[in-house]
Every structure is written in structure tokens, then in C-alpha cells.
Amino acid sequence: MKKIVLSAFALLLLFSCSNDETSTTTEEKTLVTHDHRGCASHEVYEEQLRQNPELAQKMEQIERFTEEAIRNNTGRLVNGKIEIPVVVNVLYRTAAENISLTQIQSQIDVLNKDFNATNSDFNQVPTVFSGVKANVGISFVLDAVYRKSTTKTSWGTRDAMKKSAQGGLNPTSPTTKLNLWVCTIGGGILGYAQFPGGSSATDGVVIDSRYLGTTGTATAPFNKGRTATHEVGHWMNLRHIWGDATCGSDLVSDTPSHNTANYGIPAFPHYSTCSGTPIEMTMNYMDYTDDAGMYMFSNGQKSRMLAIFASGGARNSFAQP
Q1: In whole angstroms, what is the distance from residue 228 CA to residue 208 CA?
Q2: Which are the contacts of 71, defined by CB distance < 8 A and separation ≥ 6?
């Protein structure tokens, strides 16, 4: 099991790599469905660090607060419950991209099940992880849906969909409502999120319309709504389970070290070659497996998420009665 260490987080902040799908536009790329999950949250985060060096200090402060909140058990829910209103911003060029209210609601339903351990596959968690499987206890309610017709064939990962001046839609009340943009991203990216600490003008989650919810245009093997579960996990300060590095740290104490991302639905048990050769938690929402292959958060991830809603936390404004 990994130790939560600030030095590992500092190394993560310093780590930088190029990513063609982040640094170039994706409008001219062929739009196809994808067999492997692609999440651009880490790459978008690194780009934000390059553009705003002060963000690194802010993120380090958030990490220090998170560790303190977990250590002192101050990351509790307000009034026993957090219910997050969700604003869905739909940007469409085709009728298929203008997804139905039914499809949108199916995604809200999945979030509620996954974050409250009522998903039907939660009972598939292997015995070896049964002691750490978590009910996060956060709920979501659809607050509003805004739609906008566009001529763009894809939006890329530079937050253009979040800006009216660039043809997108500005976020609505981003300090008290989770904004979720639904559009064609392109470049092999299913979705991406902004970690706590970034600008409120771009805060929220982006999901490709073909991978949202469980009906309508939702496309297998990403048609069970888990792309949004994964990205909302990032929005609540979770990292990829392999720490975006070979045998890296996700800053959570009860998730095993992973060599790298896992794809498809790995056979259990899948052993890591990292120190101690642990069984990898491939069914964790923060891996890259197919939707049908992910169905749990860990208690350590729960503590990390709840810490940002505590008094003084980066998303405490969402936890007010």
C-alpha cells in the first residue's frame, strides 16, 4: 500500500511531458469510436501549470490541507449529506450530438449509484478489497440543461467549450454548481476534468456525447456512465490510480501500486510488478478499464474527496446547506 507523501506530489507537479492531443486542435482529426479509454485531465492540468506557475503553489497548499483533513478526520459531510447540483451544457452540431434529457438523466442516475455504492456491480468487488470498498455518500441532482448549436466538428481540450467568446457556453455558478459540458472532444479523448484549485471560469467536467450516460448515443464499451464517474473523481481531487507514472503514487494509502493504466476488463487477479507485487485494483473508477470493468472507490479515495468539502477546503462552497 502506498503512503501519502507530499514529496511525491511535488514531483508530480514538476513532471512535464508533451501531448499532441492537448497542444493541438482536434477539429481536423477523424472522429471515430474508441476501444480504449482516453482521459486528458492530467495533460490539461500540466498545461495549466505551464501557463500559470502560481498554480503549483496553490495545488501544494490544497494537498497540505487534504493531508491535514484526512489526518484529523475533518473531511466530514455537512449535515450528513452533500448534494451537488449539476448544470449540463450541451454543444451540438448534429442531431445526435444534441442528446436527449433522458440520456442526461441516465448519467445523473449513474453518478448517484456509483458515489453511494448502490451500483449493481458493487457486489463484484473481490474479497481482497472488500475491507476498503467505499460508499462516498455524495449525491447529484440535475439543476439545468443549456443547449447551443455550433458549427464546430470537435472541441479539443483547451477549454473552448467553456467560453461563450469561443463558441461555447460559460459555466453557471461554478463555485456552487458542477458544470458538465457535453460535446464532441475528438483526438481519442472521452472526457477530462479540472482539479480543485483551477480557475472558476473553466471549472467542471467535459464528456464526449458518445460516452455520457447509458442510453441514446452512449457507445460501448463506454456506455455505462463511468466516464463521468471517473472525471468527477478527478474534479474531487482524485488522481489516476497509477499516478500517471510507472508505479507512481495516486496519493491514496489503500490503493495498490499499479504499473500503468489497465484497459478492457482484466482477468482477476492482475498482479503488479511494482514493489511488493500487489494485486492491482483494476476495478477502481480511476483506472482506464472499460465501463463494465470499474465499479468501486476505496475508503482512502473517499477520505481524499471529502477533504475538499471540509471547512477551508477547495470545494467547501458546495457543502453548504
Answers
A1: 10
A2: none
Compute and round to an integer the Cα radius of gyration of the chain.
18
What is the tens place of the pLDDT at every residue in 21-67?
A: 333 333 333 344 566 776 877 787 778 778 887 888 878 888 888 88
Pairing of strands 191-193, 205-208: antiparallel
The one catalytic residue among 21, 43, 97, 231: 231
The answer to whether 280 is a known catalytic residue is: no
Task: Say if pTM beats, i.e. exceeds, 0.85.
Answer: no
Tell me how far apart the alpha carbons of residues 5 and 12 are, in angstroms, rounded to a whole number.
11
The helix (run of H) or strand (run of E) holding residue 21 is helix 20-23
What cell does 18 get? 508533451
Partners of 89 in the beta sheet?
Answer: 146, 181
Question: Alpha carbon of 172 to those of 93, 222, 227, 261: distances in Å?
Answer: 22, 27, 22, 33
Number of alpha carbons in the 13 Å side-chain half-sphere of residue 188: 9
Phi-psi region of 202 (alpha: psi -120 to 50; beta: other; left: phi over 0): alpha
